[in-house]
Amino acid sequence: MTTYTIHLENMEFYAYHGCYAQEKVIGGRFRVDMTLEADLAVAAATDDISKTISYLDVFGIVGEQMAVKSDIIEHVARRIVDAVRARFPQIVHISVKVSKMAPPLGGKLERVAVTLSE
Fold it and tell me: Which residue among 49, 55, 61, 72 sits deepest, i.e. has the most Cβ atoms within 10 Å of its Cβ?
C-alpha cells in the first residue's frame, strides 16, 4: 500500500462555539488544520481526480461542521472527523486540530486548540 498524506492548513472560519453566552452571539475566529492519510496510488498513477480525496469537498465538510454551534471545540473536532470519514472511507488516518483564536479568558492568549487523531 502506498500511503499519501494530504494537509489542509490554516482553514479559517468565523463561528459561534463556546460555553459563554456572548460567544454564541458574537462569535469568533477559528482555525482548522487537517492531515489525511490514504492509499492514493491509483489516483497518482492515473491522474484521476475521482480516485483521490477532493480538497474542495473536505473544505466544504469542515465549513458545514463549523457552522453548527457547539459548546466545546472537542465536539466540533469529533463531528469534523466523523463527517470527513463518512465521505472518504479510504482514509486510514485522520488528524484534525481546531483552534479558537483569542479566546475570552481574561488575558492575552493567542489561541486554545484541541487535536483529535485516529
Answer: 61
Using a cut of 0.85, tell me whether the model's pTM lies above it.
Answer: yes
CB 3 within 8 A of CB 39: yes
**What is the distance between the alpha carbons of residues 114 and 47, in angstroms, rounded to a whole number?**
35
pLDDT by residue (tens digit) across 30-73? 999 999 999 999 999 999 999 999 999 999 999 999 999 999 99
Residue 51 annotated in active site: no
The DSSP output letter for 34 is E
Instruction: Give me the catalytic one of 24, 69, 100, 108.
Output: 100
Amino acid at 104: P
Domains identified in the chain and CATH numbers: 3-117 (3.30.1130.10)
